[in-house]
Amino acid sequence: MATGLPSSDLELLQCAFEALHRTTGLEGRLVDISVPGQHGRRADALVEITAQGKRHTYVAVLKRVDRFATLGIIKHQFEQYDKPGLLVTSYVTPEVAERCRTLHLAFIDTAGNAYLHAPGLLVFVKGQRAPSANLPRRDTTVHVVPASVGYRVNAPIITTTPRAGMVTTLRVIFALLCRPELLNAPYRDIIRAAGVALGAVGDVLRDLQGRGYITDGKRKGSRRLLAPERLFEEWVTNYPMRLRPKLTPRRFRTMTPDWWQHADVTSCGAQWGSEVAVEKLTGYLKPETMTLYVRPEKDRANVARLVATHKLRADPQGEIEMLDTFWDWPADPAYPDLVPPILVYADLMATHDPRNLEAARLLYDRKIRHALRSAYTSS
Predict the structure, then answer these.
(1) How far out from the chain centre does Cα 105 lie?
(2) Are strands 290-294 and 141-145 parallel, antiparallel or unpaired?
(3) What are the tens digits of pLDDT across the range 147-162?
(4) What is the pLDDT of residues 159-187, one digit of tens each?
(5) Rounded to an integer, what distance in angstroms lies between the CA atom of residue 235 and that of residue 73?
(6) Are residues 137 and 190 in the same domain?
(7) Is the distance from CB of 61 to CB of 155 less than 8 angstroms?
(8) pTM (2 decimals)?
(9) What CATH number should be reported for the domain holding residue 366?
């Protein structure tokens, strides 16, 4: 077995292999570490899983997580490798296991839960209790059956520090990703753009520096983003869990499905996000749901006018969602009625809807990747 992984990662991988063997009889082996991909990224390991004498090779990502918010973002990341992806983690709940199966995301955990899909192999184990629990679980389900279909497998979620998921931090990071010039702007400009308190900016910048996302900025104008793509991924992971629920979400319905095509939302202090926005940016997706970001309390009269004009009706299950805007800078002149593409991407990825994930991938390739690289060179 190859060595060189951090001891904690090696222990995680070995425990997952042992648990996989216990529940399925399959054997796992570490082949290599730090597998290169496109755009300078590297996966943690290359592993083999042997079933009925046949070896199946996976590019593995090792994560000590038990909570998955945006599986789609890692699925997108794994598209850069020429081998299927495998999540190796501490524990996957039955609900997340089902979601992984739906998205064809391979995983194994240290409890013995697993989903593996390859030519000649289909393994699905869920319901094994987390390793810290000693009692067997009654609803354990195990399927190991032959399979002959093709496959395309990708994987999971990234871990974050507590500060990375704080609402204030997420607001500031969003501003810096969308407007990299703010990194060297006076604090008052960042405060206004992100809508945060005076004392928050310095704390966030020090945290980003400590985690290797920005330079120290000891000289005036010398701060630079060091890893904007990695920071973007962290933000997309945390946004739906931490910040989005704080934006006063409310839902409506309408009897006119195509109302969005002719609605002047900017006159009501609103901008389109998610499915409508990606349709306008790429022409790829026919919207089934509508997301609007609206100005907070001071513009409630405009929102009321928008609701009345288009005969929207409050409905907790409605296809129209409204949330409060949490940034303050001029809209893109080319798309004044749309929220920033980074936010469009995050909302699409959080749905786990395959059609939205594909639209998000297209949006990233067309509108986001180049902007993030430019942020690295120009900040």
Answers:
(1) 14
(2) unpaired
(3) 333 322 333 333 334 4
(4) 334 465 589 999 999 999 999 999 999 99
(5) 11
(6) no
(7) yes
(8) 0.69
(9) 3.30.460
